[in-house]
Amino acid sequence: MVQKAKILLVDDRPENLLALEAILSALDQTLVRASSGEEALKALLTDDFAVILLDVQMPGMDGFETAAHIKRRERTRDIPIIFLTAINHGPHHTFRGYAAGAVDYISKPFDPWVLRAKVSVFVELYMKNCQLREQASLLRLQLEGGRVDEAKESAGLLAELSARLAAVEEQAEALSKQLDESADAAAVATAAHLERKLTGLRRALDALEPGTGGGAG
C-alpha cells in the first residue's frame, strides 16, 4: 500500500481552507489544515509534508514570517512553499515571496486546474524521493545481511579447514617421529619441509580468524 503524501494548507479564513480542500481533493492525498502560522509550525514539528500552501495575509504571524521560520529549521527547510495572496502589491511583493523561500507565488483568485497541477508536481517529486529513500534503505539492509551471511559462511569454512589441517598435522607429526628413528636423511628432510609448509598454512589460517587482525590484503 502506497502511503499518501501530506499537504499543509495554511489560511486564517475557514472558507479559503474549504476551497483549497475542494480543489485538491482530486489528488487523493492527505490534506492538513492550519489556521495560523503558529499552528502550521506546530504541525511541521511532527509530520512530513510534500508541499505547503501558505496564505500571505494572516493576522499575527503572516506568511512571510511563517516561511522564514520554516526555512530556518533543518527538518523543514527543503519543503516547497507555494504562497497564496489575495492582494497583488506588484513585483516587489512577489520578489519578497521568492526571497522568503517560496517556489511559487499565486494571486487569488487563481485557476483551480493550475493550482492542482502545480501541487501534483511537488507531490510526485515527494513520492519519488520517498521511494528512493526506501530502496536505498532496503539495499543497505540487504548488503548488511549479505555480509552477515558471508561472515557466517566464511567462519564455517575456516572451522572445516582448521579441522582438516589439524588432522594432517597429526599425521605429519607421527610421520616425523617414525622418520627420526630411521637414518634416511632424505626422508627426514622431506618431513621437515612438510612441517614448515603445514606451519605456514596454520599461520595463514589463523590470520583469517575474526579478531586476529588478519584478513584480505
Automatic annotation (TrEMBL):
Keyword Coiled coil recorded: yes
Keywords of the record: Coiled coil, Phosphoprotein
Lineage: Bacteria, Bacillati, Actinomycetota, Actinomycetes, Kitasatosporales
Name of the protein described by the UniProt record: Two-component system response regulator
Species of provenance: Streptomyces ramulosus
Coiled-coil regions listed: 151-185
Pfam families, alphabetized: Response_reg
Source superkingdom: Bacteria
Ranges where the Response regulatory domain occurs: 6-123
Xref: InterPro entries: Bact_response_regulator (IPR050595), CheY-like_superfamily (IPR011006), Sig_transdc_resp-reg_receiver (IPR001789)
Keyword Isomerase among UniProt keywords: no
Residue positions where 4-aspartylphosphate is found in the record: D55
PROSITE patterns assigned to the protein according to its UniProt record, in alphabetical order: RESPONSE_REGULATORY (PS50110)
